[in-house]
Design goal:
The structure holds 2 protein chains of 2 kinds. By secondary structure, chain A is of the alpha+beta class. Chain A has one domain (3-102): Beta-grasp domain (Ubiquitin-like (UB roll)). Chain A has 3 helices and 7 strands; from the N terminus they run E-E-H-E-E-H-E-E-E-H. Chain B is built from 6 helices and 17 strands. Chain B folds into 2 domains: 6-122, 2,3-Dihydroxybiphenyl 1,2-Dioxygenase, domain 1; 151-308, Roll (2,3-Dihydroxybiphenyl 1,2-Dioxygenase, domain 1). Chain B has a 9-stranded mixed β-sheet. In chain B, strands 2-3-4-1-5-8-7-6 form an 8-stranded mixed β-sheet. Chains A and B meet through helix 3 of A and helix 6 of B. Chain A: Pfam families: Fer2. Chain A: Residues 1-94 form the 2Fe-2S ferredoxin-type domain. Chain A: InterPro entries: 2Fe-2S_ferredoxin-like_sf, 2Fe-2S_ferredoxin-type, 2Fe2S_fd_BS, Beta-grasp_dom_sf. Chain A: One of its GO terms (molecular function) is 2 iron, 2 sulfur cluster binding.
Chain lengths: 103, 311
């Protein structure tokens, strides 16, 4: 079953194929919108809030997704697989210590 | 100076989210040798083929990715005795860990670096060899000993956190490392990264500025040749291992490199090459006007993810 993933605010859509996580589907579709980091649930840069839809999630680092985040449906795009069409808001931020100093 | 005092990075304990997935990555794909496991503590102990010590990588299942500790091997027990008061005089609390608390290991000293990382020193660890023996050893292990990414040994690590100048001072003043290279802000001259060596390698440990303490940037493994880096890159592609930076050369250290992530998002590097460092080699300085060539010298493009994605 294929599902459509919609990124709110960015007005970006892509398709998720069975068994694939949201981030790899975005990368596979050649789209940009969610930050790509470690792709293993460890670094937290691809954090999204699931506004609508159902998903399953694999283990994510508690440093970035604690119980409270799970309740708010704030999860890592590299670790969630859709079980319906999804609407997401991108909330991941990455610290830029060096780049910021360059500006 | 003959190589005494701190010898090398001898053990890195990495937190993983799923031990089975970590085993597939580090043992099946990368080709590290699993020497021991502890199902109760959810740990796997591994070594690279050409290391004589019992293990160099410990994988521990946890609910957060990242680094548990780094441990450096020192020349002998007297070195530990001599270093303890010097570390305390620097201003760090040192705890003593009895022999045997860490498996196959003699006593350890433990303290926290100004960057927030847990570091240990030990003088003794059981040796199990590299399969060749020590008398008329030959040069080639049996078929199958060298496999996967053909990793020869654990080489160095890069740690992210605040106070990296203090870390540099600790390693230089207390541990007798040399500052081989440094990246600084072009205008403020603030340190952004410090590369330190206790050997003839370009670095044995490095620090990069990060707002949060105790962050893990990467652990790095030594390969025989640049051809082996390309071979590893082909394996990484075949098994769809997430790549951070494809094959390239570092300006800093001159290593031929590829960066990729384990299944929990911890960054790994395999590399070959680099120059020979001696204690009288001057410190090399790069600044932010040349971040591209400093990071990756074949395309001279700085990667944002390389300095921002950490566990």
């Amino acid at each position: 079953m294929r599902y459509r993933v919609h990124l709110e605010e960015l007005e970006l859509d892509f398709t998720c194929h069975p068994g694939q996580n949201v981030l790899e589907c975005m990368i596979g579709a050649g789209k940009k919108g969610i930050q790509v980091g470690c792709r293993g649930g460890g670094c937290g840069v691809c954090k999204v809030e699931v506004l609508e839809g159902e998903f399953t999630a694999r283990a994510m680092s508690k440093a970035h997704v604690d119980e409270e985040s799970l309740v708010r449906r704030q999860v890592l795009a590299c670790c969630i697989t859709p079980r319906s069409d999804l609407s997401l808001k991108v909330i991941g931020k990455i610290a830029k210590p060096i780049q910021r100093r360059c500006q | 100076m003959a190589l005494r005092g701190i010898l090398r990075l001898g053990e890195v304990c990495i937190r993983v989210l799923d031990l089975a997935a970590a085993r597939t990555h580090y043992v099946d794909r990368m080709g590290l040798i699993e020497v021991m496991s502890d199902e109760e503590d959810r740990k796997i102990y591994c070594k690279a083929w050409d290391e004589h010590d019992h293990h160099s990588i410990v994988l521990r299942e946890a609910d957060e990715a990242g680094l548990d500790y780094v441990a450096f091997k020192v020349y002998d027990d007297q070195t530990l005795t001599d270093l303890e008061p010097r570390i305390q005089a620097f201003g760090l609390d040192v705890s003593r860990i009895d022999a045997g608390v860490y498996p196959k290991s003699g006593r350890r000293l433990e303290f926290f670096l100004p960057s927030g990382h847990r570091m240990q020193l030990y003088a003794e660890k059981a040796q199990i060899g590299n399969t060749l023996g020590t008398r008329n050893p030959g040069v080639m292990p049996d078929e199958g000993v060298i496999r996967g990414f053909r990793i020869n040994r654990l080489d160095h690590c890069l740690l992210g956190g605040p106070n990296i100048d203090e870390c540099g001072r600790l390693f230089q003043e207390v541990f007798d490392f040399d500052l081989s290279e440094r990246i600084e802000d072009e205008e403020s001259r603030d340190s952004l990264a410090m590369f330190l060596t206790c050997s003839t390698k370009p670095h044995d440990v490095a620090f990069v500025i990060q707002p949060e303490p105790g962050r893990f940037h990467h652990v790095s493994f030594l390969l025989e040749s640049a051809t082996d880096v390309i071979h590893a890159a082909d394996m990484i592609g075949k098994y769809r291992i997430p790549v951070d930076v494809g094959p390239n050369r570092h300006g800093v250290t001159r290593g031929n490199t590829i960066y990729y992530f384990d299944p929990s998002g911890n960054r790994n590097e395999v590399f070959s090459g680099g120059y020979v460092h001696y204690p009288d080699t001057p410190t090399l300085t790069w600044d932010t006007s040349q971040m591209g060539p400093a990071q990756f010298s074949q395309d001279n493009i700085a990667r944002e993810s390389f300095l921002t994605v950490v566990t």
